[in-house]
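FW: tagging you since you asked about this chain on Friday. Here's the raw sequence from the shared folder, copied in full. Didn't touch anything.
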Amino acid sequence: MTLSRSKRLQAAAIAAVGVPIVEAVGATYTWREDGDGEFAKLAAAGTPPILALWHGRILAATLYFRDRGVIAITSQNFDGEWIARLMRRFGYGAARGSTSRGGARALVQLRRDLLAGSPVAFTVDGPRGPARVAQQGAAWLAGSTGHPILPFHIEASSYWTAKSWDAHQVPKPGAVVAVAIGTPIAVPSTDAPDVESGRVAVEGALAGLETRAKAMLT
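HL: got it, structure written out here
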């Protein structure tokens, strides 16, 4: 999908306005972490991970994993354009595509990025849901590269909930934000049974991490 010049200018304007707002609000958060050493261990071992999260936690995740060279899939439509521009300001790279358009090309790019040493990120129920149902992309990528999936979940003590399919959580200023990071999930191959087992494992891990993150706030 090719955006018009006016749409690209709109996307640039949204990112320019959005970044300082996100920065300012994010500076008021108090972070609690569990499992935060897993990312560094995998990077040090030369196997940067495939970060896996639910679509409804993108905002907080963008702040938490900023400036670590993570490459994330963003869709090729207008929303994907401004999101990609905003994420670049926080130190992310973008693989443009989605499960509905350009997905194969984006997966090829992520595979290349992983093998070159960059961590990547997947909203495993995105871009359109259904919410909290993992799709197979992250598991396929793990099976094709030998790099593990690293699931994580984020919960905030106070937040707004967007009226969107993913019920996106936006932590309020001053919130305590808990990040629960799981153990790496390996997928041995791209054979259909292995990919499906990996998908199910990711879905189960994220459910458990949600419980863990909520407990960190009590």
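FW: Strands lie at 30-34, 50-53, 71-74, 93-96, 120-123, 149-156, 159-161, 169-171, 176-181.
HL: agreed, and The two ends are 45 Å apart (CA to CA).
FW: great, closing this out.
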